[in-house]
Amino acid sequence: MGKRDLLSFDDLSRQDCLDLLDLAARMKAGSYRDLPLEGKTLAMIFAKSSTRTRVSFEVGTQQLGGHALFLSSRDIQLGRGEPIKDMARVLSRYVNGIMIRTFAQSDVEDLAQFASVPVINGLTDLLHPCQLLADLLTIKESLGTLDGRVVAWIGDGNNMANSWIEAAGLLGFELRLACPEGYEPDHTIFEKGARRTKLMITEDPEEAIAGADVVNTDVWASMGQEEEAEHRKKAFAGYCVNAALMADAAPNAIVLHCLPAHRGEEISDEVLEGPQSRVWDEAENRLHAQKALLARLMG
Ligand code: CP
Ligand code: NVA
Asked: Is 67 a catalytic residue?
């Protein structure tokens, strides 16, 4: 069998995904003692900032017996224009896996094509699959199952929204998105998702959230969109997940946010800090979900 990557949820079968979540839960429970990454190294390339992804991958690799290398794209020759396909082949001679956070999804695909070791997408402008693994684990933990759950996405049709659509398509749960006009998710990803599961998109947050079991949001301006931030604040007015909007969700609904959060913009302080929020478990679950992924891809 050739090497396996995680560039998007398209790299997972439904069973792969459920197995990863089960392994992550076992790892979290503390019963897993194996060191599948012993003597192995993960290169972590970052062209954008990160707190959770960087720390959870580094700590997770170490907990599995391996070593993680933090490589800022500013400090490696990539930042001076060395082609990705060259870096892919060189790094593959040194390390056992590569995690990359960057802008273009095509760069991650090029890296995976030329690398002979597994490549993991640690976020692009298009997708954030590692976050989705943690989010799905959080739902299973909090609500017992994903089956029959209704998930609402309120806000930007960004990388997180696209990955939610892919996850819904793979696992078959219902997803409702509320996005302002002009900020819809990727059209191709949406069309594909809509062929596989019940997807709905609206401009009305109340319509999307009505009776939802899981309520999700994310920043209005993602990394790389800093200059659009003021313009986006106007476009997203009315898309704040606050107590008034939450009143329309299911009574036991949980709230997720991949973080970092902007209180008072996409989510109120009251909701983020409130009893329905699972954001700290969600952040912790990055560690467990990625350990499961590392063990599967690099173990
Ligand atoms: N949620 C997430 O990916 O956080 P970081 O940007 O801190 O890695
Ligand atoms: N949509 C956000 C997610 C950060 C984890 C961004 O891309 O900046």
From this structure: no
Ramachandran angles phi, psi of 70, nearest 5°: -85, 120
Please give the distance, rounded to the nearest whole angstrom, from the Cα atom of residue 236 to the centre of ligand 2.
16
Specify whether the CB–CB gap between 221 and 158 falls below 8 A: no
pLDDT score of 23? 98
Do residues 48 and 73 touch, judged by C-beta distance below 8 A? Answer: no
Residue 257 annotated among the catalytic residues of the structure:
no
Q: Are 9-128+285-298 and 131-282 equal in CATH topology?
A: yes
Low-confidence ranges of the chain (pLDDT < 70): 1
Going by alpha carbons, the residue nearest to atom 1 of ligand 2 is 222
Query: What are 212-261's pLDDT values in tens digits?
Result: 999 999 999 999 999 999 999 999 999 999 999 999 999 999 999 999 99
* Token output for 32: 């897993």
The set of protein residues with a Cβ atom below 6 angstroms from ligand 1 is 50-53, 123, 131, 258-259
- Residue whose CA lies nearest to ligand 1 atom number 2: 52
pLDDT score recorded for residue 1: 59
Q: Tens of pLDDT along 2-36?
A: 899 999 999 999 999 999 999 999 999 998 999 99
Give catalytic status of residue 290 as yes or no.
Answer: no
Cα-to-centroid distance, 215 and ligand 2 (Å): 17
Beta-carbon contacts of 217 under 8 Å, excluding residues fewer than 6 positions away, are 153, 154, 155, 239, 241, 257, 266, 267
Measured from the CA of 123, which atom of ligand 2 is nearest?
Answer: 7
Q: Where are the domains of the chain?
A: 9-128+285-298, 131-282
Superfamily of segment(s) 9-128+285-298: Aspartate/ornithine carbamoyltransferase (3.40.50.1370)
Reply yes or no on domain 131-282 having CATH 3.40.50.1370.
Answer: yes
Max Cα-Cα span within the chain: 55
- pLDDT at residue number 2: 80
160 Cβ inside 6 Å of ligand 2: yes
What is the per-residue pLDDT for 258? 98
Determine the atom of ligand 1 nearest the C-alpha atom of 101.
8
Pairing mode, strands 67-72 and 174-178: unpaired
